[in-house]
Amino acid sequence: MSVRNTNAPKRSRLSAALIAAIVVPFAGTAFAQEASESSQQAQSTSTLDKVTVTGSRIKKAEIEGPAPVTIITAADIEKQGFSTVYDALNTLTQFTGSVQNELNQNGFTPNASFLNLRGLGPGYQLVLINGRRAADYPLPYNGQSNAVNLANIPAGAIDRIEVLSGGASAIYGSDAVAGVVNVIMKTNFEGDQFNLRVGTTTMGGGDSGRLQWVGGKIWDRASVTYAFEILEREAIFGRQREFMDSYRDDPSIDPANATALPGVRYTMWVDANGNPTSNPSAPGRRLGWPMAGNLDATCNRFSEFEPVAVNGQAFCGYYGFPAGQAIRNSDRNYNAYLYGTYELTDTIQAWAQLGYSNAEATLASSSRTFTSASVTGANNFYDPNFGAVIGNVYRTIAPSEIGNGGGQPTLANEQSLDFAAGLRGTVFNDRFDWDATLSHSRYDSETKYNWLVQSKVRDFFFGPRLGTHAGTGYAIYAMNLNRLTNPLSSADYSSITSSYRDEASSQVSQGSFVLSGDLFEMPAGSLAMAAVLEAASQKYDVSPDARARLNYTGNDAPMGLTSTGGGGSRDRYSVGLEFSIPLLSSLKASLAGRYDKFNDASDIDGAFTWSSGLEWRPVDSLLLRGSYATSFKAPDMHYIYAGESGFYTYAFDEYACRAAGLDPTWTADCGGTLYHP
Questions:
Q1: For 181-212, what is each residue's pLDDT tens digit?
Q2: Per residue in 3-28, pLDDT tens?
Q3: What pTM value is reported for the model?
Q4: Are 361 and 209 spatial neighbours (Cβ–Cβ below 8 Å)?
């Protein structure tokens, strides 16, 4: 057995390979030392273990292959102060593509952390845990595609992260187009280590604390490694950062001319004399702004609104819309990891791994707004109280009315479970290694949120529909001006909202068998190979609240909220073969091919990919390499099995804007109309 260090983790094979790779080029210097030191170094080099590095299934002594691999170690993560796997990876220059994150609180996945390698998109890099596929995040990214969430991997249990920046479908199959991220967990750990870290921010908010416990025990024929981590973080809101708490902070505009979101606004048809009218043919008919005469008094009732008067238009404006949004969510994460091995015989080892994560997060999006069109179905309506046509009613629910700092709170609870077990060993006098693995990974998500209810908002501010006005054909509503122009109490706000719940889950079960080793000797060395057989079954289900579905016709549908749903399954069968061919003592070639067969509702059927590479080492300290590979991405599950789904888009209708008597150059009125089918 190796010498044990009860206070530190056992040196991994990769660490030994790294040390050897550094030592070998300077072996000449070492030979100038004492004979005993030279002898020991020669012995350690000759008995160097072979390791598997991301991008190949062939075990080898060299840590470099035909494609570059970036390695982030546990020491790197700790030294640079990263709290999560995502934080560490997001600093690499390879991950330059934009992704939705916590700043996109109105998006579909605000509690997940996705990568975007080379800008191709979150679903175009393969994320592995100890070389195995993990379950996708249950909710589709941007409501469209599937990707792996990196927020639920315990940083304390990580040994290293290997990032391959290049196509690797010939080795790993679908999704490995832009590259591969392989998160490798700790094994063979001896002793116990505790780590406690607390932190805060200088500008307010964001207090955090993390407790890690990593330990293990190694016996003659068995080992166990365990890790437990608690991470708790306080939210950071836009209002806590002076540079992003107002529309005036937009660096692309002049703060003096910043456009405010209407807080309270409505217009009225008036004739040439400024009198209310419902006559479409009245001489000089135009849009009047009734708030102009009482603007300051109305706006001062709301601490967040300011008087705005531009181009004859007068209303209460709201510049602080970003203030209530969370820049970072508040969350509490519990992560656990367990890994064990047992030597059944001298050549066969059994192993098992269990990972569990529970995340509880509170999200906060910006304040809610409504318009007359969003609650009555039309922008204009006839109001008998004024004897005129009212239009462009716009009301923002102020932060003081909502509470919770002004953001709309959403509670997310997520659990993930990853279990794997297998046997591995050697055959043919230790010439070949084999590994048989069965695994199951599952991810469940539950989201609870409060939302404005369309029918309740309509009844509270506009009352029931009173019929159709004969002169204009518009619906008749008697607007409650007092409620529109005064702050809501907490009871009022509760009366126009309702609670909703969405559920989603995803899972993948898979089995694999890998055989690798040296086939025979060639003049320049051993011809190495690896063969892989895989079978996998994948499922997912996204079930939004029934009241948020597109086909829901009840009176308690959420206002301005759409959803995406879906569910389905597919099976995959794969076979692959890889060779490492020594052409010369300094020149090595690699070839790999793989075929993936899919059984699902798509017509992809199957895909064959291949790769080739060359490695030339003219001297030990210099490596010249190149590779060519084909890659493919199977259709995301949600592309195939999505149910009725909504989306958001903006359309600019200049004609309609001018016809309504509005200024089409002023974006507060004509910057776009939001549609969500």
A1: 999 999 999 999 999 999 999 998 899 999 99
A2: 333 333 343 443 444 334 333 333 33
A3: 0.81
A4: no
Token pair of 50, please? 């072979």
Q: What angle do CA 552, 555, 556 make, to 5 degrees?
A: 80
What confidence score (pLDDT) does residue 106 get? 57
CB < 8 Å & 24+ apart, contacts of 284-291: 286/661, 287/391, 287/392, 287/660, 287/661, 287/662, 289/313, 289/314, 289/315, 290/266, 291/264, 291/265, 291/266, 291/315, 291/316, 291/485
600 is written with which tokens? 């699902």
DSSP secondary structure of 342-368: EESSSSEEEEEEEEEEEEEEEEEEPPP
Instruction: Flag whether pLDDT at 94 surpasses 90.
Output: no
φ, ψ dihedrals at 518, nearest 5°: -95, 125
- Residue 23: phi, psi to the nearest 5? -75, -40
Least confident of 134-148, 233-247, 607-621: 134-148
SS3 404: helix
Please enumerate in sequence order all residues whose Cβ is within 8 A of that of 431, keeping only pairs 6 or more positions apart, or say none.
517, 518
Q: What is the bridge-based pairing of β-strands 348-365 and 330-343?
A: antiparallel
Cα gap 303→316, rounded to integer Å: 11
- Report the distance separating Cα 592 and Cα 158, nearest Å: 29
